[in-house]
Design a protein that fits this description.
- The protein has 269 residues and is an all-alpha fold.
- The chain folds into two domains: 32-39 and 47-73 and 140-170, no CATH class; 76-136 and 187-268, Lysozyme.
- The chain has helices at 2-24, 33-43, 51-57, 65-72, 81-88, 90-103, 105-115, 119-130, 141-150, 155-170, 193-199, 215-228, 244-250, 254-268; strands at residues 139-140, 179-180.
- A two-stranded antiparallel sheet has the order 1-2.
- The chain is globular and about 55 Å long.
- Residues 1-23 form the signal peptide.
- Keywords: Signal.
Amino acid sequence: MLKSIAGGVAALAMLLSVSAAQAASCGNDASGFNAWVDNFKRVAPSKGISPSVLETAFANVQYNRPTIRADRGQKSFKLSFDEFMKKRGGQAIISRGKSMKSANAALFANIERRYGVPAGPLLAIWGMETGFGSFLGDQHTLSAVATLAYDCRRSDYFTEQLYAALQLVARGDLSTTAKGAAHGEIGQTQFLPLNVIRYGADGDGDGHVDMVRSRADALASTANFLVGHGWQRGAGYQQGQPNFKAIQGWNAATVYQQAIAYIGAQIDG
C-alpha cells in the first residue's frame, strides 16, 4: 500500500513537472501564450519582481501579432547605403538635425562636457529612430516584450528584456500603458528595457530616467550608451576611427552604422 502511494506521489510529481515545463515552453503562435504568462508570473517573484508589480504590469498584456510580423520582416537593413538613406529620409534628418542642434545648444554642450560625445551622432540616432521624438511607436511595450520573450526565436534574450521592463515599472520609469516600437524599444531614441537599466541617465535632474517625455534624459542616456561601448572623448567616429566601434554597438546593421556616422558628420560640420 505504501509503495503504491509512493508510486502515485512520484507519478503526480512527474506529471506536475511536465505540466510546468510545458507551460514554460516557448511558442511560435498565440496558442500557448497565456499559459506561458501564467508560468512566468509564478516564477518571476523568485527573480525579485513583486506580485503586485506583476499583476499591474500584465493587466493589459496580450500576444502582439504586429511585433511578430515586424520581427520576421526586417528588410531595410539589407539596402545599400544610398537606398537606406533615401528610405530613412537622411537628407531631411541632416537639415532638421542642424536646426535641432542650434535650438538645443545648451543641452548638447552639457552632454558633450559630461560624456565627450558631440551632438552629431546623437542627433543622427534621434532623427533616425523617432524623427526627433515625433513618433515613438504605437505598440504596447509590455505586450511586445512579453510576446518576444515567449516567441522561440530569441526567447532567452527577450526574457531578460522583460525582467528589465518590470524593473522599470517597479521604479516608476515605465508606464504599464506605455507604447513604443514593435520590439519593445522605449522613448525618443528607442532603448530596449535592459539598456535603460544599464545606461539610462537622468539628464534633466528630476531623479527619474524618462525616455519618453524628457529629451534631456533620452539624449544623455544615448551618450552614456556610446561611452559604455567604448566611446573615446575627442576621437573621430567615422569608419576606421576609434569611435566607430561605439556606433557599431548601437545597431548591428552595417548600413545603419554608416548612416549614423555620415549624418552625424554632416550635422557637426
